[in-house]
Amino acid sequence: MKHQFLKVATASPELKVADPAFNAQKIIEIIEAQYEKGTELLVFPELCISGYTCGDLFLQKTLLDGCLAALKRIAESTKGRPMLVFVGLPIVYQGKLYNCAAGIANGKISGLVPKTHIPNYGEFYEARYFSPAPAGALWLPFGGEANDGATFSTELVFRDENHPEIAVGCEICEDLWAPESPSAWLAKSGASVIVNLSASNETVGKREYRHKLLAAQSGKNLCAYIYADAGVGESTSDMVFAGNSMIYENGTCLAEAEPFSGDVCEAEVDVGFLLAERRRNNTFRAGGKTDDWLDADFVGDGDLSLRKIDPMPFVPHEAGARRERAELILDMQAHALARRIAEIGAKTALLGISGGLDSTLALLVTCRAFDLLDKDRKDILAYTMPGFGTSQKTKGNADALMEALGVSAFCVPITDAVLVHFNDMGHDPEVRDAAYENAQARYRTMLLMDVANETGGLVVGTGDLSELALGWCTYNGDHMSMYAVNSSVPKTLVKYLVRAEADRLGGSVGEVLGEVLSTEISPELLPPDEDGEIAQKTEDLIGPYELTDFYLYHFLRRGDRPAKIMYLAQRAFQGKYDDEALKKWLISFFRRFFASQFKRNCVPDGVKVGSVSLSPRADLRMPSDASAALWIREAEEL
């Protein structure tokens, strides 16, 4: 395990009903194969040692003794192997029969978890054989040596003795479907991973319902949920079993076995993320009722091999999902802006249009908002304000876009006014420093604000989440507006939203948007090069946006530390960026993020559309003077 990623798997072994010796051999074969693959937590189905469909054979001592012997044999096979294994079997305690899960590690039966909720409806009649779990923790002797036995309780939490934050709780099949699932208080007791040994027969629609149950249970308990389902080896007298196993993490399905395939279901669970979510979410409260912690050695030191690290975490991969997400976000932005315009009675909306991505998206959103309000788009006052660095391409894009969208277009060159300002402040225009650049941004904002006053309008902000994270905005310049529609949209997502609108609108608008998408990202505050091309390239100065967005997501959304972020970036961007570049931009990200908090602490209102927001009124409460030393030091030492 590296960076708190736990390698987990479920398996539905080949099975013969009421043949524990055969079943144990098949289970051992899978344990050996999974050990070679580095699996640290392996879960088998409910009653997999005996078979779930034994019927009245469960009452036979011959079967029960055979199951116990098979359990000991399986336990012996795990000796010397860092792996926690759960298997199911019937267990007799004080004259009663219980449907149990046995947790096994390093040759030892660590604990036995009896099933709490015994179904006795429809095709299930478990109450004919099994008793519901008794209260409290008990010691169940197996006979032989004095210490030959295991703790018997529904309240057990299995944890790795070297990594106590890796804690596993267990419930069995119907326990998940019941109103009060043991997993709820096991999670509150510290279990960040829940396993479920199940024998859930297949019926039409049941697979979809399982998905909903597991998504909800893992999401509300902020846990990973490992669901191992009985497979085709079970009796088909009146039921068929499909081995429909699933692995969920905080509401997201990481892996699923194909029904009737007999496939092993494998994934790598990010326990570090789950623990970070629990720290962040104060409605998840610790304080479960168990003190029964069982230490075991099951965490190894393997690398990630199964989990695909998404280099674009803000952007859905599947085309249909991207279109759906884009439409939802654009609607959210437009409705939020429309609400603000209607509430304050704004007659006009004003935007500075640069011909770049952000102002293009803001203009598209504003047009949607005006359409929602049945307002004339001519009351959208769009200004190009060419300065020292404006290129012909971006100016042309801006003009063509304003014409295609039917808004009122204005051009106010700002170079002469800024030169007067330089003269007033005694600044040499040949000195192209921060004052040279920021004077242009502030003059543009002043112009828009003053025209808004004159026309009874509202200035729509164009800056995005990525720029705000890196402080790539001029304080009281493009940093300021009367409503910031892009404030929680990262740059990597801005591109897809613009592309989605290009595909949806087509025609002349689509053509112009295509040109915008192909333009180099730049604030255009420095003069073009000798060929008239853009000289000031943003990503050369602050890092590639795909990298900085990746760092932002993992730092804020998943609570990852610099070493883990670097580890994940190496896998996400393998072959594209070398370690030196990844480290350089990671250090730069933390420096810029911490140093720019003073800008974020006084930003205008802006709609939150995703899980990451930097608004001081919503998601991020951070002092402007916080030190970045800890994060930078860790990144520098990588």
Which descriptors apply to this entry?
20 helices, 638 residues, Rossmann fold, 8-stranded mixed beta sheet, 20 strands, alpha/beta, Nitrilase/N-carbamoyl-D-aminoacid amidohydrolase, single chain, 7-stranded mixed beta sheet, 39% helix
What's the total count of β strands? Answer: 20
- Structural class call reads alpha/beta
Q: How would a textbook summarize the main sheet?
A: 8 strands, mixed
- The share of residues in extended strands comes to 15-25%
Please, how many domains? 2
Radius of gyration: 30 Å
Instruction: Give me the CATH fold name of the largest domain.
Output: Rossmann fold
Q: Summarize the amount of helix as a percent range.
A: 25-40%
Weakly predicted, low-confidence segments: none
Spatial strand sequence of the major β-sheet: 6-7-5-4-3-2-1-14
Account of the 3D structure:
The protein has helices at residues 20-36, 61-77, 174-177, 182-188, 206-220, 271-280, 319-344, 357-372, 392-405, 415-425, 434-455, 465-470, 491-505, 507-517, 538-542, 545-557, 562-572, 579-595, 597-600, 629-636; strands at 5-10, 41-43, 84-93, 96-105, 108-114, 138-141, 149-152, 157-160, 167-172, 193-198, 224-229, 246-249, 252-256, 265-270, 293-296, 348-352, 380-384, 408-411, 457-461, 483-484. Helix content is 39%, strand content 17%. The protein folds into 2 domains: 5-294, 4-Layer Sandwich (Nitrilase/N-carbamoyl-D-aminoacid amidohydrolase); 319-636, 3-Layer(aba) Sandwich (Rossmann fold). Helix 7 (319-344) packs across helix 8 (357-372) and helix 18 runs antiparallel to helix 20. The protein is of the alpha/beta class and 638 residues long. The strands form 3 sheets. The chain has an 8-stranded mixed beta sheet. A 7-stranded mixed beta sheet has the order 13-12-11-10-9-8-15. Strand 10, helix 5 (206-220) and strand 11 (224-229) form a beta-alpha-beta unit.
